[in-house]
Amino acid sequence: MILQAAPRVERAELLLVPLRLREPFRSSGGVVDERPVVLVALHGDGGTGWGECVALPTPDYTSETTATAWQALSGQLLPSIVGRMPEDSWTALHWAKLARDQPMATAAVEMAAWDLAAKRAGRPLCEALGGFVRPVPAGVSLGLEDDEDVLLRRIERCLSEGYRRVKLKIEPGRDVEALARVRARFPDAVLGADANGAYRPADRTRLRELDDVVLAMLEQPFPREDLRAHAELQSELRTPICLDESIRSVEDALLAIEMGSCRMINLKPGRVGGLDEARRIHDVCRAAGVPVWCGGMHESGVGRAHNVALATLPGFTLAGDLSASRRYWERDLVHPEWELTAGALMPSEAPGIGVELDRKRVEALATRHETFP
Ligand code: OSB
Ligand code: MG
């Protein structure tokens, strides 16, 4: 557990920064444009590590929300590590349990600890994690659009900007035909579809028609608990199923692979309790020959830096939901902002996450700010 490698934490901060996406994002779970960003700072040994909590304002994606994560961070997680020696075994046990129950809140602290540890070691986070400074192929995730021409124009723009893969949200009633029209228009594009669990096992016959569209993957067609339905569909589908919400730990990944529920995993450190667990999942996937790619949760530049660092590990062989700052924000919270170069994002050589937080602006925008102790 990373806390063992991190310096003693002398002080911590928790900030709530309400950002707004440049364009509202619709999935089968609902529409979002408000994006409250929860940031964690850990101060120790003369340095500061930053982490970001990926929880959303509403419990559509998983049951954690900005409010529950704030509560866990403020009431339990941050008070429990400030001033304590990180290798304290009570802390380790307690944390393992929290990482299961509140993975997003826990991950925010764990990632800040990684940043702090990497900065203290004077190494870029990607290297500290076992990867290296290399371009990370970028993909884009586009929300549902009522107007199909708007969607087609968006796809065209993303492809011309250099994104290597376009993922489209689908839901019952807006799937096979809509995707077939996109395919007809962009015959060579690498396309994926994400249902965020909106289908039921009885929709299998319908979902089988997606094979004709030729997709790089079908993401999370069924609710997360239903590994069996995913396995049944995968056995009759050429398109690889990619699990997102279903995978919350390395045990979930092992079971899903063993059951044949997927042939690919969307790995989000924020969803699985942090970078350490994400790395374990990466390792078992790699050993099993299951490719992974790094997902996103509309993070600010802080969370993106962690995701990009993770995505430099060798098992990340596919373009992730890692897009430039501009895709999401009028202005990001970090500099330099994340930019696309030849269809990829490039981690910095600087120690830790390698991007600087615009502290003045973050403090000016923050609607809540707590300090521990
Ligand atoms: O299902 O992958 C998802 C955003 C928020 C919550 C869940 C998901 C997403 C995305 C966008 O698809 C990914 C991104 O570009 O950050
Ligand atoms: Mg998804």
Give the total of domains.
2
- Which distinct ligands sit in these coordinates? 2-succinylbenzoate, magnesium ion
Provide the structure class: alpha/beta
CATH homologous superfamily of the largest domain?
Enolase-like C-terminal domain
Return the average pLDDT rounded to an integer.
Answer: 95
- Fraction of residues in H or I helices: 25-40%
Q: What radius of gyration results from the CA coordinates?
A: 20 Å
The major beta sheet can be summarized as: 7 strands, parallel
Low-confidence stretches: none
Per the principal axes of the C-alpha atoms, what is the gross shape?
Answer: globular
Number of helices: 13
What is the CATH C level class of the largest domain, in words?
A: Alpha Beta
Query: What is the second-level CATH architecture of the largest domain?
Result: Alpha-Beta Barrel
Task: Return the string of H and E elements.
Answer: EEEHHHHEEHEHEHEHEHEHEHHEEEHE
Number of strands: 15
Quote the distance from N terminus to C terminus: 23 Å
Fold blueprint:
Blueprint: E1 11-27, E2 30-44, E3 47-53, H1 66-81, H2 89-101, H3 103-121, H4 125-128, E4 136-137, E5 139-142, H5 148-161, E6 165-169, H6 176-185, E7 191-194, H7 204-208, E8 217-219, H8 227-235, E9 241-243, H9 250-259, E10 264-267, H10 275-288, E11 292-294, H11 301-310, H12 325-328, E12 334-335, E13 344-345, E14 356-357, H13 359-365, E15 368-372
Parallel strand pairs: 5-6, 6-7, 7-8, 8-9, 9-10, 10-11
Antiparallel strand pairs: 1-2, 1-15, 2-3, 4-13, 12-14
The protein binds 2-succinylbenzoate (OSB) and magnesium ion.
Residues 194, 196, 219-220, 244, 266 line the site of magnesium ion.
